Amino acid sequence: MKINRPLSPHLTIYKPQLTSTFSIFHRISGAFLGAAVSIFFLKIGDLNPTFYYFYRYVFLFTFYFHWFILSVVNFTLLALCYHMSNGIRHLLWDLGLFLELSKVYTSGIIMLFCAACLTVLNIIRFYLSQAQSMILANSLEAKKKSFFFASICRGDLRAPGVDHFRHMCTVLTFTE
Question: Which of 176, 170, 134, 139 is nearest to 155 (CA)?
Fold first, then answer.
């Protein structure tokens, strides 16, 4: 027997609330992070350090699709910050705080703001640490070269062609 009744509430007439949207995205971000961590740790055990073609493939992938890798990392960071901020909000609810409807919406907006700020700050921190490590690597390389050059000038290192380097040291000291 078929009864012609509409589904209640149907998705076309249902207006999603802010709280239900946050709850759905909290579950989606948790599932995404769980899957990402599981895949990462399951695949990291399968890597063979002598597998030449794997490293060639990874090099080509990172060379041509670095924008894709950075997008995935930034999206994962956004999911992590959102899930963490919403988890703190849920912990506050468990303590009995912010349970009135107006405070629920206010805490949701604050949670979104905190997640966005954490994501942006972490991305800025990542790029600044990369720039700092590049500067540090360049300065260490320069210090290594100058230490090597000074050691040869003092005669601490014995290597073929040291006399040529000593001649360069005397030329450099006299021309300065």
Answer: 170
Closest to 75 (Cα-Cα) out of 16, 133, 128, 115: 115
Distance CA 99, CA 105 (A): 10
In 3-state terms, what secondary structure has residue 118?
helix
Say if 156 falls within a structural domain: no
* CB count in 10 Å sphere of residue 107: 22
Q: Phi first, then psi: what are they for 161, rounded to 5°?
A: 85, 15
In a domain, 1, yes or no: no
Q: Which residue has the higher pLDDT, 103 or 66?
A: 103
pTM: predicted TM-score of the whole model, two decimal places: 0.66
**Pairwise CA distance, residues 7 & 158, whole Å:** 88
pLDDT exceeding 70 applies to what percent of the chain?
65
- Judge whether 86 and 116 are in contact, CB under 8 Å: no
**CB hemisphere CA count around 84 (13 angstroms):** 13
Residue 68 sits at the vertex; the CA angle it makes with 66 and 72, to the nearest 5 degrees, is 120
| Residue 96 domain boundaries | 20-34+47-141
